[in-house]
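for the recovery benchmark. tokens below, seq after
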């Protein structure tokens, strides 16, 4: 019997690389779409078929869909940077919404048998500012990131007619030492400059990278799950507690506060999302029997730092 084949976008990124590694460890086959073939083997040392793709500009080559069972679309301009101008906001938007539209267009045009499953990235930013616990049934928020996530998901939903199943990954902060928010915070905290954001009372929803990868594979293997899925642990923490726990894990103090006004000056349009409370419950993951290996932040941070030390 032919082994299952995954098609990944954003495979060279923080999440994509770990997912690719796990997919190959399960003896599945892999096809990758990437913006840059130059130096690809260095950035992505895994066996795969690879095709070039400019996500915001064009549809990917149709041959890329040959024998594909599962598409996982992770590509997108990194969100952790300041967003000042309309042009910068447009890059974030286009790299997600136009890329998703182009991918879905190619899926429609492909003559190969359609993949059974289309998994598309999104974020808990979808919900906007929430102080009370919310699950997948909650409505969308209205800030910049919430609107971006809604349009991103709407673009992915266009694929639902073509595949058996569509899953939207509403991810929280992914805790791992090799990318995402933690990779940016570690050197700052190590230098003794750790700080809570604003009053630090806002909730943060998070998941360790190992649990994230296992949850994606669980979703692939669980046909009853579809639509939006909150990809977070059931234990959100307040920003001030996240700050304290990270400082403790690094054996430092984090006595500082970055006032809201300074955050707005530093980060522009993305600042409201950094200050938003996100108290998100992973109802679908829990109801489907998924068991988190690292459900508590302290242990997740220590595991991430240990993984970094051991490499
Ligand atoms: N990390 C988190 O905490 C987190 C939380 C919530 C949601 N997410 C979402 O999950 C997805 C993957 O996150 P990640 O942390 O792995 O991201 P990442 O490390 O920044 O990697 C994203 C990948 O997307 C591609 N890419 C980069 N800039 C692009 C652009 N301007 N246009 C199109 N593609 C571009 C790149 O792949 P190629 O160069 O190979 O094309 C890159 O490796 C993203 O969409 C992100 O918004 C992440």
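predicted aa per position
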């Amino acid at each position: 019997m032919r082994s299952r084949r995954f098609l990944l976008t954003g495979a060279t990124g923080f999440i994509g690389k770990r997912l690719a590694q796990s997919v190959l460890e399960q003896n599945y086959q892999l096809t990758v779409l990437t913006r840059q073939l130059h130096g690809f083997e260095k950035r992505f040392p895994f066996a795969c078929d690879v095709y070039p793709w400019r996500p915001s500009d064009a549809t990917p080559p149709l041959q890329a869909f040959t024998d594909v069972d599962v598409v996982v679309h992770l590509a997108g301009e990194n969100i952790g940077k300041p967003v000042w101008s309309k042009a910068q906001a447009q890059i974030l938007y286009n790299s997600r919404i136009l890329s998703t539209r182009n991918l879905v267009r190619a899926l429609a045009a492909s003559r190969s048998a359609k993949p059974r499953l289309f998994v598309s990235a999104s974020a808990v930013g979808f919900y906007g500012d929430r102080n009370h616990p919310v699950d997948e049934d909650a409505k969308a928020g209205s800030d910049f990131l919430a609107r971006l996530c809604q349009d991103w998901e709407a673009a992915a939903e266009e694929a639902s007619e073509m595949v058996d199943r569509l899953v939207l990954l509403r991810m929280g902060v992914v805790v791992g030492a090799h990318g995402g928010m933690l990779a940016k915070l570690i050197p700052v905290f190590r230098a003794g400059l750790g700080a809570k954001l604003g009053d630090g009372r806002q909730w943060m929803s998070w998941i360790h990278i190992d649990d994230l990868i296992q949850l994606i594979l669980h979703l692939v293997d669980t046909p009853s799950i579809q639509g939006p899925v909150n990809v977070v642990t059931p234990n959100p923490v307040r920003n001030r507690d996240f700050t304290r726990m990270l400082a403790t894990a690094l054996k430092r103090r984090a006595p500082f506060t970055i006032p809201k006004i300074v955050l707005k000056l530093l980060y522009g349009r993305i600042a409201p999302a950094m200050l938003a409370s996100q108290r998100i419950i992973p109802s679908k993951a829990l109801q489907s029997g998924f068991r988190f290996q690292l459900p508590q932040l302290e242990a997740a941070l220590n595991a991430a730092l240990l993984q970094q030390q051991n490499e």
